[in-house]
Write a structure and sequence with these properties.
Strand content: under 5%
Distance between the termini: 21 Å
Order of helices and strands: HHHHH
Number of helices: 5
Shape: elongated
Structural class: mainly alpha
Helix content: over 70%
Mean pLDDT: 84
Radius of gyration: 14 Å
Number of domains: 1
Number of strands: 0
Largest sheet: none
């Protein structure tokens, strides 16, 4: 997944890796805030499209792509330990 996202758009991966948090609500957002919001939304969309229904349910309430990534790491870690 990591390499797919990096191939798709490296800036999207940087949003995931850099723990992007939504900009605080303010009357006017900076261009950077808007771009980061868009990249975060794209990353979350990629994750949700790539996951099966069960996995999507586990991460669908996440507020950021980084949060989804961390939940997936934990879920897959548990699965590996079972095997």
């Amino acid at each position: 997944m990591k390499y797919f996202i990096r191939y798709f758009d490296f800036d999207i991966w940087m949003i995931i890796e850099d723990v992007y948090l939504k900009a605080p609500k303010k009357k006017e957002k900076s261009v950077k805030d808007i771009k980061n919001d868009q990249l975060n939304a794209k990353a979350m969309h990629i994750f949700l499209c790539a996951l099966n229904e069960d996995m999507s349910k586990n991460v669908s309430q996440s507020k950021s792509a980084k949060e989804i990534w961390e939940k997936l790491e934990k879920l897959y870690e548990k699965e590996e330990k079972k095997d």
